[in-house]
Amino acid sequence: MRAIRRFTVRTVLPPELASLGELVRNLRWSWHPETLDLFAEVDPEVWERVGHDPVALLGAVDPARLRELAADRRFLRRVADAADDLHEYTTAPGWYQTVPDAPRAIAYFSPEYGIAAALPQYSGGLGILAGDHLKAASDLGVPILAVGLLYRHGYFTQSLSPEGWQLEHYPSLDPGGLPLTLLREEDGTPVRIAIGLPEGRTLHAQIWIAQVGRVPLLLLDSDVAENDTAARDVTDRLYGGGTDHRLMQELLLGVGGVRAIRAYCRVTGHPEPEVFHTNEGHAGFLGLERIRELTESRLSFDEALEAVRAGTVFTTHTPVPAGIDRFPAEMIARQFGGDNAWPTVPVDRILALGAEKEPGKFNMAAMGMRLAQRVNGVSELHGEVSREMFQDLWPGFDASDVPIGSITNGVHAPTWVGREIMELAGRELPSLVERAQGWEGVNKISDADVWAIRGRLRARLVEAARERLRRSWLARGASRAELGWIDDALDPDVLTIGFARRVPSYKRLTLMLKDPDRLRQLLLDPDKPVQIVIAGKAHPADEGGKKLIQQIVKFADAEDVRHRIVFLPDYDMALGQLMVQGADVWMNNPLRPLEACGTSGMKAALNGGLNLSIRDGWWDEWYDGTNGWAIPTADGVGDPDRRDELEAGALYDLVEHEVADRFYDRAADGLPLRWLEMVRHTLTSLGPKVLAGRMLRDYVVDLYTPAATSGRALLKDGYEPARGFAAWKLRLAQAWPGVRVEHVETSNLGDTPEVGASLEVRATIALGELRPEDVRVQAAYGPVGLHDELVRPAYTTLALESDGDDGRAVFAGTVPLDRTGSFGYSVRVVPDHPLMDTPAELGLVTVPEEPAGMTNGTLR
């Protein structure tokens, strides 16, 4: 008989152990080894049985053992010390408290969070990045207030059929069995938020809090009695269901998330956020909710839009249009119109925010960008790709002028770096652990120590892989009697390559299988063998991805190679930690440039692993020729099969002739000195860059603080600047058709232009109804392409020289001839206002109808 309801009965701790419960409820334990050691001492056998889950530990330990610990003075001292340490960690000022003008609080929205394996609310890179973002914020004292959804079935757990086909399972998660607390009113009743739905329905949600160090993570849960069945299922699973289901989830995350923040701040006294950070388009509706708040109190739609944009940051994580959420426009109109309309937020204005090239579609990323004054990608290359991908949102501007910047992702070292490495660094390089400084000190650690730790981490991965492999084969129907070979699967002394990704087609899980015979030769080489550990999940609806997994599994099942290549199902944070710590080489071979960032290789690098990767994402900007290997790309080859063939051939050659050669090149003492030289260089060159702390500092300095400054500027004097800015934008948009570049003249060029000289430029601009202070006139200059187009031009602002009564003004300035070769210039007019962040913000630009005054010559 099946239970009609499932719930968790929590242990009642003796009063002496009350602090132990506080330690369990704060997820700092997930990256704090000393706290984990304390939990292990509660009951080592149970600790192993529950998979190092502190909540499950307290639910499974014998009450008699708890009474015994409550009388153990030594254990109580350890608990008190750990609680004191946590209190100091969460209250002591951090780096952020030294930043001038920083926002009092930042709201961070993401549909998924990878905090710990014990809180399975993530599917892949987006969630893992969000988790590392919160942890680094906690470490640095950044006052982030995070928002997500609580999925009752998480993403899914993965197993394999006897034929190697991915199978999905959705285990029920009870919040009572997770490290969560329910947000309650003063009278003890659960806090509720509500969202109106069409046809008189209402979506209700309660709010669970996961405490991530000093960062509260609010998780909205629609499984409450007030909801009908469909509404209760809104938070059933991550990325499940159809379009209607996805829209309900994103409404709850965006609109409901803002309401949850308001409730949390009201109940707890937490400062209201000054900046809202939208982590991908899933939470884009948060901007509409903030507009609704302002329009119902004091502002028009346009005025509220400016106030909201100023304090909003939008981060895009996808380099492909298929990765963006898009809804039928009529679905959005139905949600925000009719009997469910917001009186002060017209539905046609909402639809315009999400409009794209294809009629009838509502694009969540487009809305997110239009509602944010600051937008960024997650690596330099991804920033370039995003500027081209979203260029249509800023018509008239070259892709290089599109206002999408980049902050390259980072990873949270205490979460992902092996304990042995952290402890060695703590002893030998304390400044590296305490302040993330002193990476050059890595060269002081002996080769023997580095190699010994690498060996222990590799052996741990081999041991864990054998156990997971055995469980997988048993689940596929094998008997224990036929699995004796697993005892010798993989070898703790063999060069180990790790490959773990989600499995969309562009990540090319099966590129290594392009020439199976060549792969076999590498795996079975008698002198320089290679072994590969693989993991990854395909989206449940991605049949193509599942076929790729099946192909890998079929190859890895073969008796001649199964001891050298394994596929481990159910890729999660725990397996990811084992792999990035234990792999000697981290392999990544996406189809360039479709990897936005890809942080797994960063984690491997911090553990002394070397990257073997296509130059995509973060590796494109930080590969220096000696800190790993770059797989050559066949970018110009149009035939996908031929391209895969060429790049797979390059991969095989690198593994055979460079990677394996260097790994097995041993000195008399058995140490691979050239390999260890690369490991040291990897740590010193990449260590300071790949940390999530560096990433958070970049967000604070480059985005959060400027956004807070802009937001404060607009809300002064009862939002009077917002009113003025909105009116100015409206006036600019109406008058802009009257702006023309009438004439451009130059002087001082001479017959033979030479580098180091300068060009005097004067431009006559018809301003129509605008004033000179409404515009910025710029000379664009630089190299010229085949069709007379300026290639990545530089700009210099021309100064107002004269302003006539006829609506014309003359602007003048100097263009430096700062390079040799083909050179050209032009002039453009863009809006200019102190509250704008970039010249492209309004999407308005005027250039000469003909390339007036264009000089296309050669400088000497």
UniProtKB/TrEMBL annotation:
InterPro entries tied to this protein: Agluc_phsphrylas (IPR011834), Glyco_trans_35 (IPR000811), Glycogen/Maltodextrin_Phosph (IPR052182), Glycogen_phosphorylase_DUF3417 (IPR024517), Pyridoxal_P_attach_site (IPR035090)
Catalytic activity, EC: 2.4.1.1
Enzyme class: transferase
Domain of life: Bacteria
Catalytic activity reported: [(1->4)-alpha-D-glucosyl](n) + phosphate = [(1->4)-alpha-D-glucosyl](n-1) + alpha-D-glucose 1-phosphate
Cofactor(s) recorded in Swiss-Prot or TrEMBL: pyridoxal 5'-phosphate
Keywords from the named record: Allosteric enzyme, Carbohydrate metabolism, Glycosyltransferase, Pyridoxal phosphate, Transferase
Domain DUF3417 stretches: 13-119
PROSITE patterns (alphabetical): PHOSPHORYLASE
Entry-linked NCBIfam families: more_P_ylases
Function as written in the Swiss-Prot or TrEMBL entry: Phosphorylase is an important allosteric enzyme in carbohydrate metabolism. Enzymes from different sources differ in their regulatory mechanisms and in their natural substrates. However, all known phosphorylases share catalytic and structural properties.
Family per record: Belongs to the glycogen phosphorylase family.
Protein name: glycogen phosphorylase
Origin species: Streptosporangium pseudovulgare
